[in-house]
């Protein structure tokens, strides 16, 4: 079983992904970590020195490599991974996509503590919320192609939506 958690930065993909992988006794994969490993540098440096286009190409390549693996896993994708280079099609072809849909206010509270998100660097909280809202609107049609959409994501709602008993 391959489960791909998709959604905005701060939606809980990594936190819930680790919990779900532990519960299912499968490997947890963080796509951003895999990109950093492949490129031997942090994502912020990839954006700074090679640009977003290069990042998205590498992201799509690594997503496809993992999607076509035979083994089971739970993956926390990057927020944009499903939205570029046919990512959502790859995800839906090879696994189960779960969109963790959180309100922008909650996302802003979570991401304002993390300064390592290059697309969300903002001067103040108002600008951060506006960026998140624009990003969410731009990506929502892609995210809604997920096989499962969870407006209140938690481990129990993910398990229930996958029809897995605790």
List keywords for this structure.
about 170 residues, alpha/beta, Rossmann fold, 8 helices, 5 strands, globular
> Which stretches are poorly predicted, pLDDT < 50 over at least 5 residues?
none
Q: What is the CATH top level name?
A: Alpha Beta
Strand ordering within the main sheet: 2-3-1-4-5
**Structural class, from secondary structure content?**
alpha/beta
Number of helices, where a helix is a run of at least 4 consecutive DSSP H or I residues? 8
Helix content class: 40-55%
Assigned CATH superfamily? P-loop containing nucleotide triphosphate hydrolases
Task: Give the end-to-end Cα distance, rounded to a whole number of Å.
Answer: 17 Å
Count of distinct structural domains? 1
H-E order: EHEHHHEHEHHEH
The share of residues in extended strands comes to 5-15%
Radius of gyration, in angstroms, nearest whole number: 15 Å
CATH topology: Rossmann fold
Identify the overall geometry: globular
Please report the total strand number as a whole number.
5
Q: What is the averaged pLDDT score?
A: 89
CATH architecture call = 3-Layer(aba) Sandwich
Largest sheet: 5 strands, parallel
Structure explained in plain terms:
The structure is a single chain. The protein is of the alpha/beta class and 166 residues long. It has one domain: P-loop containing nucleotide triphosphate hydrolases (Rossmann fold), CATH 3.40.50.300. The protein is 52% helix and 13% strand. It is built from eight helices and five strands. The chain has helices at 13-24, 31-39, 43-49, 51-67, 87-94, 104-111, 125-143, 155-161; strands at 2-6, 27-30, 73-76, 96-100, 148-150. A five-stranded parallel beta sheet has the order 2-3-1-4-5, sandwiched between helices. α2 (31-39) crosses α4 and α6 (104-111) crosses α7. The radius of gyration is 15 Å and the shape is globular. It starts with a strand and ends in a 5-residue tail after the last helix.
């Amino acid at each position: 079983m391959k489960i791909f958690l998709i959604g905005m930065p701060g939606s809980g993909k990594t936190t819930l992904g680790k919990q779900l992988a532990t519960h299912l006794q499968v490997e947890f994969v963080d796509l951003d970590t895999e990109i950093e490993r492949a490129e031997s540098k942090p994502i912020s440096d990839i954006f700074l020195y090679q640009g977003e286009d290069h990042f998205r190409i590498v992201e799509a390549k690594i997503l496809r490599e993992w999607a076509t693996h035979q083994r089971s896993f739970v993956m926390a994708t990057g927020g944009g991974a499903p939205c570029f280079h046919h990512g959502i099609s790859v995800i839906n072809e090879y696994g189960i996509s779960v969109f963790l849909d959180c309100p922008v206010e909650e996302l802003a509270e979570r991401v304002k503590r993390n300064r390592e998100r290059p697309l969300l660097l903002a001067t103040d909280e108002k600008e951060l919320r506006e960026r998140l809202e624009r990003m969410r609107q731009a990506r929502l049609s892609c995210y809604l192609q997920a096989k499962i959409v969870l407006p209140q994501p938690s481990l129990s709602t993910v398990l229930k939506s996958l029809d897995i008993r605790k």
